[in-house]
Every structure is written in structure tokens, then in C-alpha cells.
Amino acid sequence: MTFPAATILGYPRIGRRRELKQAVEAHWAGRLSEPDLEAAAAELRGRTRARLVELGLGAGDSSIPESFSYYDQVLDLAVAVGAIPHRFEALRERDGSIPLAAYFAIARGDDERPPLEMTKWFDTNYHYLVPEIGPETVFSPSGDRFAAQVREARSAGFVTRPVLVGPVTFLALAKPSSDAPEGFRPLDRLDDLLPVYAEILAGLAEAGAEWVQLDEHALVSQALGSSDAELARAAERAYEALGAAPSRPRVLVAAGYASLSDEAWAALAAAPIEALALDLHRGPVPAPVPGLAEKVLVGGVVDGRNIWRGDLRAAWERLLELRSLGARQVAAGTSTSLQHVPHDVADEPDLAPRLRSWLAFADQKTAQAATLGRGLTLGAEAIAADIADADAALADRREAPGVRDGQVRTRLGRLSPGDLARPSDAERAAAQQDLGLPLLPTTTIGSFPQTAEIRRARARHGRGELGTSAYESYLRDEISRVVELQEDLGLDVLVHGEAERNDMVQYFAEHLQGFAVTRNGWVQSYGSRATRPSILWGDVSRPAPITVGWSSFAQSLTARPMKGMLTGPVTILAWSFVRDDQPLAETADQVALALRDEIADLEDAGIRIIQVDEPALRELLPLKAAQQPSYLAWSVAAFRLATGGAAARTQVHTHLCYSEFDVVIDAIAALDADVTSIEAARSRGEVIDDIAAAGFSHGVGPGVYDIHAPRVPSVDEVAELLERAADALPLRQVWVNPDCGLKTRGYDETVESLRNVVAATERVRAKVAALS
Length: 772
Known about the structure:
By secondary structure, this protein is of the alpha/beta class. The chain contains 26 helices and 21 strands.
């Protein structure tokens, strides 16, 4: 049994110039046929394999992961095992297979069927589609896309390692179907699912796969509603069965994003599988347990989540420590898939050379893993020069100007608990009465569609083809149009639409000290959507107001309240690549102080409602229960530092996405925002019950319009969700809003959807009035 000396657990799949996004969206628009889409995807996979060999992985040793997906790896697995919701059954082929058109319909919905719910992948900004599993779900193999990609690679001279979500993680991440009885859990179906996995593994072996990677990241998490012991028992049962399968590739079980529980570590070490991949960036080398003598251990010492070049010396020492466990072989690897980082630092000519020397994107991280693998094979002397170069880069980063700013640190040192406190709820409610808001006030989350015209104008301005005066005139016209549209629709609290913003984090990064932005640093967020996370490399400060001018202009156009729109400190951290040389709490407070100054300037400009978005609050929640209280304490403190200076008459809003509300209800209440909007439409308002049970006393807007799919909700659908909220919560608390911002949607669907939202609100208001 052999395994390569170095590997990675996955690679970015959208293409370094977002080729997959462009092909998929052209297919959705009817401009690219399905065969042409398949050809474009095959070409992208081929380029990826060749690039990984160029970076030091082997063409014929299974070190290259086959981790491609058209949309989402969890959806891929759901389709492969036939686990699709009943509402999509009519889209199956006669032979039971699920065609690509049905795959995309499950992901995005259609006129008749809502899509699968989306939520965050562990504690990352990647969104996966949540399978719906019930007692009625029939598991059966559907198609052979995984095996086909193995054959495709073989035909081009590559021996690749297909990557699948493991059975325990697949079920642990699923939700019960709507037909499931109370108390049912998808993990209860594990024994029914395993034979289908065994069939898939047999098909991979027949296609020529020598190894298969099964991602079992659920085994590191204490945030999925199952105990460590229960998940470990499930893993023991699963891998006893799969290990005994008569025809299969060798199995590598990968567990990233944190350390395995002690129970899961012992269970997997004893299981009849060949290799384990451990996250040694976020977790320590575990204690010796029985069963390791015949195992390969892949040490995930290269950080798959962040973009810093890292400490190669410390990584090497961690691999030597892993060798002391007595495994048959130790290999070097990444802590997670590299899907969370951009492709290549060499694609960033706009970054300062000094900053570039501190960075490692996916290609550089692959090369780092290959370097460490060379050291494991040839000895430490073979990589001594590489380690010395990494040491020098770390030293240079510590000493560089701007990494530490004495004025910022002095200001933080002068803070007191009083800086985090606003006036009482009663005082604020009284002071905000003159806003004149109706029952069930309607609003949106902030952004309006970013049209092709807006993007072209921004690009022309960036290239110097459109002067600043002309560009600002264009933006004023766009903002005026958006304000007029909202008044026509009948919305109560307006937004300016954020036409000037390329991204809700990058826009602030471009105006704050301590940040840098990339040109091609795209990272998949969900499906065909990608973001360019900014790089937070030094101490943060605000040289000048950022949003005040545009917010003031928008407010001058209307007598209705206009929201000032800011991105909160936790979200700015979560959606950036953040410095790793100090605690996150310190960095969050620096960002919070900059936002505090912005809020003061918005107030001085007459803006009465200010929204400080924290859609990522739940996202950063640690996977280990013991670490969660500390995180919630500093994240709440950072938000309150940002908003604590706001006057009683200023109504502070916040917004949260993908939040299992019950997990962080106390923290959300502690934010002390006057109004909290929460994504809820895709889950059909499930969060409302959690809000009601918690006795949440502030204003709350459970989303009534899912903006992550192109379908338009009907008036009846919206009214049903709104009535659910109105029945469960005091009416004075309930706001009406979409799930999230409208940036990614088109105007036709947006206008029709918002008209339906306003019509549904008027219907419910009339019903309430008739009953009073």
C-alpha cells in the first residue's frame, strides 16, 4: 500500500478567471448547450490536473484530488445517491437517473418548486445545499459522474483521487423532510445509505480509482446537534461496512476545520480503512491510539482557509511529531480543501511586492505541501532553504510599517465598558416614535440589483475611461432611480441601493487603512457566485467618512426614512482574509472603532436609521463548544463598540444570514440592535418559532422572500410567512423584508417580488385591522 508523500484535499473549482461561472450562467441563459457546458467543464478539469502536476503533485500517484462540482459537493452526493425531494421526482429520467437540468433545478428552484435550503459549510463563507431526508427517501445510485471523471483523467494520463462527502457527514448536515415524523433524524438512515455508497465505491474502482477521499468533517463539529459519541459510533458503523466492501478503492477519510473528537479519532484509527487526513493547523497532533500501525496519516499542516504564507518550520515540526504516532506512513497535506482561497498570488500584480511575499494562495499552498512531502522523502536538508525563505518572510512581516499603528492601539487602550452601552430600550423607543413607521413596516436589506451597466461604469472608471465627475453623476442618477422605484412600490423604509459598492466588505476595505484588495482573488461563495475577500494585513483605521455622502444624497430625495448601510466588524473579518498574528478580538475592535466614527458622521448628516450588517455572526461560531462562549463575548462586544455611541433617536438595525437562531439567540439579543432581520424564507420561516420561544423583545424581520433563487414568490406565499410571524410575535416587533440584499438578482424579478411583498403586507395589515 502506497500513498503520495504530499497531497491537497481539494482545489478551487470555479477557474482562475471564473470560467465555470461564465459557462454555467451562459447555459442557464440558454446561450450554451449542455454538451458545450460539459466540454467547458472537462477543459477546466484538465487544466487543473496539469497545473497541480506542475506545482509538484504526481500525475500517477493519486495525489491529485478530483473535487470538481458544477454547483455544490453536497448536492453532488445527494444526486449520486438519489436523495432528492419528492417535489423534484418528476424530473428524473425513466431509468431513475437525475439529469443535469434537474440538478440545477434542485439547486435553484423553478416556477413550481422551491430549491433546497442553503446554509454555511461549517464555519466558512461557503454555502452548501441542505439535503432533505426522511423515512420515505429511497437511496439508489443515480448516474456515474464521479466515475466518469476518473475515467476522463485516466484517459489523459492522470491517476486522480475522487472526493465525495462521507456518509456520516452527508446525513449529519441534512434536515428532516417535510413528511418526516417528529423526532426523526436523517442520521437514522445511515444503514440504508451505506449499501449505495458501497456501489459507488465499486464503480470508482472499476473506473480505475486507486484511492477515494471521503470527507467526514462532521466528526470535528459540536454544532450539528449530535454528540461526539453518537457521531463516532456512526463513523465506526459506516467504515466497518465500507471497509469490508468486496470491491473498492483504498479509502482516505478526511476530517478538516478542527480536530477530531477523541471518540471519532479512536473509531477511525481502528476502522478497516487505509488513511486518515487530520487538520493539524486548527488542532494538535492527537494521542496514540490502537490501529495506526497500518494507516497512512496525512498531516494537514498547510492552512487551507487563509492566504498567509505561514510558518513552514512549524509545519515541518508538526509532521515530525505526527510521525511519532507510529503510523505506517506520514504524508504532508492541507488542513482543508483549497476551495476557500484564490488560485494564484502571481495573478495579483496590483498588490505591493512586499505584501505579495507574505501570501500563499492555492497554487502556493500546493507547492508548500509538495515541499514538505519532499522533506519527508529526502530529509530535512532537502528543504532547508525553503524553510529559511519562509522564516525570512515571517520576520519581514512582523517588522513592516503599518502592521502596528500606535495611535490605533492607544485609542483601544482607553476604552471603558460605558463605550459599549446605548440608552435603555424604553428611552430609545420613545425617541424613535417620530419616525412615523406603520404597523409591519416594509424595507429591504440594502443592495439593489447590480446591473451590467453599473458594473461597466465602475470598470470604466477604474480604468480611467470615465472621469470621476461623470461616474459620480451616473451613480446619482442610479440612486435617484432606485429611490423613486421604492417609493412607487410603497416601501416604508428605503435604501440607496449601493450602486457605488462592488462588494459589502471590499467597499469598506478600499477606504480603510490596514487592508488590501485583489484583482483576481475570486473564491466561490455558492453555486456560480464568487467573492473577492479583501486582505486585512495591518492595524485598521478610517482616514475619512466612507458612506456619508451617498446616504445624505439619497435621504435628500425622499421624506421617508433612508437607512445608512454599514457592514459590521465580525462580517468584515469573516469575509476577509484576516491577519493571523494577533487575536481576532483585537482586530474586530479596531474595525469597530472605524465603524463607530462612521455612525457618528451619519448621525450628524441627519440619517436616523443605520443598519450594521452582521450576516456572518453565526458563521464564525467555533465548531468546538468550549470555544464558543469566548467568541460570542468578543463578537457581541465588537458590535456594541461600533454602535454604542449612537443616540437614542437613532434606530440601529442589523441583519443575519444562515443563522440557526436558537444557537446564538442570547448573543443576538445582546447585540442590542433595535431591529434584527434574519434570513428565513428558504426554510419556510422555521426561525420564527425559535424567536418566539426565546422571548426576543426587539424588532425582528424574518425574511419573506428568498433572494438566492430567481423564482418570484407569490402574494400567497409571502402572506403565509408573514401571518406565521404575526401569529407568533407581538405585531409591534414584526418587520417585513427579503432574506438578504438584492445585488445578485435582476430588476424584473426584483420588482415583481417586491410588489408581491408589499401586497401581502397590505393584506395582512387589513386582516389585523379587521380583527382589532
